[in-house]
Amino acid sequence: MSNEPVWERPEPSGKPSPTPLSRDLIVSAAIRLADAGGLDEVSFRKVAAALNAGPMRLYGYVETKDELLDLMVDEVYGEITPPPSSAGWREGLRHVAHGIRDATKRHEWFIDLLSNRPHQGPNALTHLETTLATVRFDDIDQVLGAVGAVMAYVFGAVRGEITELRAERSSGMTEEQWQRASGPYMQRMLATGRFPTLARVMHESSDTDPAHRFEIGLGYVLDGIATRHNLAWRPAGSASEPSAQSP
Amino acid sequence: MSNEPVWERPEPSGKPSPTPLSRDLIVSAAIRLADAGGLDEVSFRKVAAALNAGPMRLYGYVETKDELLDLMVDEVYGEITPPPSSAGWREGLRHVAHGIRDATKRHEWFIDLLSNRPHQGPNALTHLETTLATVRFDDIDQVLGAVGAVMAYVFGAVRGEITELRAERSSGMTEEQWQRASGPYMQRMLATGRFPTLARVMHESSDTDPAHRFEIGLGYVLDGIATRHNLAWRPAGSASEPSAQSP
DNA sequence: TATCTGTCAATACACTGTATCGGCAAGAGA
DNA sequence: TCTCTTGCCGATACAGTGTATTGACAGATA
After folding, report:
1. Residues 6 or more apart from A13 whose CB is under 8 A from it?
2. Do A152 and B201 lie within an 8 Å CB cutoff?
């Protein structure tokens, strides 16, 4: 009934109980379950059971399951360390990108909760704030464009990684050879000759390290921002970053 | 029991029936339902009901619900027109990017089915093949890197768009003013003063057209690829595209 | 002490994906 | 033509989901 978002709604007034409860306890239990067995393990019944409580007890703290998921997402945002305020826009955005990727490594389900609703919890907002603040272009539209592009790339890339990783895991522990067409189905498809370029990629590509591929793509995006805005920029492996200026 | 993927498994031998059935009928019914009411409307019971059949009848054509979703995804890939073979890498990738974005406009649920499993249906594979083939760099790793980065950006950006669009729709038809902090919660948050840059973005940004923002980010990625690989490239609005060369 | 208020457990409902079983109808063999 | 097999389909059932409803009980207040 209450139209306020979770973040602004107070929790029930911890009445002394054999097993005390709180929003924090609930979300951390849910996160534990999700980390261990994926989002499917997160049900009100299971979360409540993990806390020695009845399922309906959770509804005092959380109005709906989506709210619980929102709280979980925001908790993950809270784990991500902001870039140092001394960082230039390029280092800053790289830091943020890796922060999200690392967080998703710890909580794979994080990436599944992107399309539910926008992330507006307090931690998500401060994450967004510090990310925007690290890009000190004069033109605010350029700031938004740069941050938006980097975020879009990061989310897409991380999602791809996780998807691939899950496929490997479920498809019988095929380590990195999975995309090498070791799956019999893929082998048959490639054998049809209808996918020559794809076959070439599978057979000849030497770049199978996901972290490296992530870095490559991220480099593209950052280079593009620098090029488009005529920012000074060094091609590779350079330590210092010039302070940003919009043209 | 059969370990073969759907794509290689024959359908039941169309026995004459009052209401004939086929995989195509099933997936198009499912797609119709999903287009109309989102993925939640796609259940075996509802799809079967739309075809005047019992739910269990579908299991002859599709072994599991994930298989049905895979078929739906592949159908969407089939709708995407490949780039003209005359296109250079930049036009080609732009064409692919917009193809995916447009398809997602027609079928919003498409973007939700990315993290399930990799897309390996015949249409998805030919889509990937033509995408790779449009980038004629000598170094195959550079091809994969470029295509991977563009795809990651596209998926991330489109997902963001759809998420925002859904939020607007559910949050009471707030058109484009949503991100202008018209939501009372956001207004309160911004009023705390803890998010100055975010507030500035919300108030001062004039760039609210999603299509334009998509284009901007895509431009970053393509510029980055061109820059990184020292490809000839014109900053803006230039018609002809030089044929690609890797350094 | 009596009343109110807020928290919780139990039950119930509609819905999901899918395993199992039993029948039925078409094709094959005699 | 009669039987038998085979493959498809419907009905039922089961375990699980999110959540609405109800009723009891405990602590605070009058």
Report:
1. none
2. no
